[in-house]
Amino acid sequence: MKDVLFFNSMLTPKIITIVYWLLLFAVLVSGLGSIFTAYGSFWSGLGILVFGSIGVRIWCELLIVLFKIHENLKKLADSD
Predict the structure, then answer these.
(1) Are 53 and 21 in contact, with CB atoms under 8 Å apart?
(2) What are the backbone angles phi and psi of residue 44, rounded to the nearest 5°?
(3) Among 11, 22, 37, 46, which lies 20 to 30 A Cα-Cα from 29?
(4) What is the pLDDT along the chain (80 residues), one digit of tens a residue?
């Protein structure tokens, strides 16, 4: 807990994992909703499912990469 309070440990990467699963669930619900409602079609729902899940994954991976870069830079700075 001390690491989190004094910013020695990053909390956001753990939160990004939770956000990823919530967004993936939202993509699933909206894609299935588009397939089975009168406002959408099968192809638009399938597109939401495929491209939405890929987009959410890419977005979360890019955020995680930023934190990995930070960790590696911190290791380099601490090694001197």
Answers:
(1) no
(2) -70, -40
(3) 11
(4) 777 777 777 788 889 999 999 999 999 999 999 999 988 899 999 999 999 999 999 999 999 999 899 889 988 998 86
- Tracing tokens 């967004």 back to the chain, one arrives at 23
User: What is the separation of C-alpha 22 from the centre of its chain, rounded to a whole number of angstroms?
Assistant: 9
CA atoms within 13 A on the CB side of 30: 14
d(CA 20, CA 48): 16
Question: How many C-beta atoms lie closer than 10 Å to residue 75's C-beta?
Answer: 9
Closest residue by Cα to residue 57 from 65, 45, 68? 65
